[in-house]
Design goal:
The chain folds into two domains: about 170 residues, Rossmann fold (3-Layer(aba) Sandwich), CATH 3.40.50; about 80 residues, no CATH class. The protein has nine helices and ten strands. About 10% of the residues have low confidence. The protein is elongated. The chain is α/β, with parallel strands linked by helices and about 300 residues long.
Length: about 300
């Protein structure tokens, strides 16, 4: 091998080696036990309230597992016999005992899930009327609300959100909890610990589908979530300044399930924005990661 060929070979070898090292370093962020997970881009600019939104999971990040409960909320003005009331009470108890299975069924569709309940409790399909109403009776399943949350036990990470909002960072929620279950947390008149206001709340029924609930870590969920956040940010900036061209923009997705974070990083990139992730393990770890990213550097 002459010197020219040898030099060309060494240059090619260097580029291949550099490429492999770079790829492994990116994978290392996600798979070597680190909690901050980057996509194909390292963040080279300061993460400020002007270019960063943080999106939080709810269950096991803000709310302790086990606080999600299930119940049918039966209007007091239903027209039911005493026997039918007892049937509904039995259905309600069965529903609470099988709530996770119900959630699994909803991944097919809401209607499929209610059909599944009807195999055990056909009363859910019974047409019922409402007192003092001229409306025609409707199947009970169309009146019932599933799920509620006990809001008395939150992780301290809810305080991190409040700190972020004081610093001016937009925050959002990205959760698989159904919207009807989550809604009471925002009712400041009834919730003992109401959630603060968010830029956007993305739930299992937020992604446009044909009756099917799309949940994390599905690609469509991630893409719908970040695009909707970005749209609202652009709308806000356009309203305030008449402009909405503030790319590149960074979303930070925080979730306790690694597969959800990986999906967000992989699929949460679009025109004008990218997504990095934090694999949540504890409030202290989250706080330290946000300090590492320069977001909470001004807070003790």
């Amino acid at each position: 091998m002459n010197l020219a060929h040898k030099g060309l070979f060494l240059r090619k070898l260097w580029f291949v080696t550099f490429g492999i090292f770079t790829a492994l370093s990116f994978l290392g962020n996600a798979y070597a036990g680190q909690t901050i997970i980057y996509g194909p881009h390292k963040i080279s600019v300061p993460l400020t309230p002007a270019n960063t939104t943080l999106i939080f999971d709810v269950d096991d990040v803000l709310l302790k597992r086990g606080d999600i409960k299930a119940s049918f909320v039966m209007p007091r003005d239903f027209v039911l016999t005493d026997d039918e009331v007892k049937q509904v009470e039995r259905m309600n108890q069965w529903f609470q005992d099988n709530f996770q299975a119900f959630e699994d069924q909803t991944q097919v569709s809401e209607e499929h899930a209610y059909d599944w309940i009807a195999t055990q409790h056909p009363i859910i399909n019974k047409p019922v009327g409402v007192k003092n109403s001229a409306a025609a009776p409707r199947p009970m399943r169309t009146h019932l609300l599933h799920g509620y949350l006990d809001t008395t036990t939150w992780y301290d990470s809810i305080d991190i959100i409040k700190s972020l909002q004081k610093l001016g960072y937009p925050t959002a929620l990205g959760t698989n909890i159904h919207v009807s279950t989550l809604a009471p947390l925002f009712d400041r008149s009834s919730s003992p610990c109401p959630l603060p206001k968010f830029l956007h709340v993305h739930t299992s029924d937020s992604t446009p589908t044909q009756g099917k609930l799309i949940k994390k870590p599905h690609r469509d969920y991630t893409q719908s979530m970040v695009k909707e956040c970005f749209r609202k940010l652009q709308q806000q900036k356009s309203t305030q300044t008449g402009k909405n061209d503030f790319s590149p923009y960074v979303f930070i997705f925080i979730d306790d399930k690694l597969k959800n974070v990986e999906s967000a990083v992989e699929h949460g990139e679009g025109e004008g924005f990218i997504t990095i992730g934090i694999h949540y393990q504890s409030t202290e770890q989250l706080r330290n990661d946000l300090i590492t990213l320069g977001i909470l550097s001004n807070l003790k």
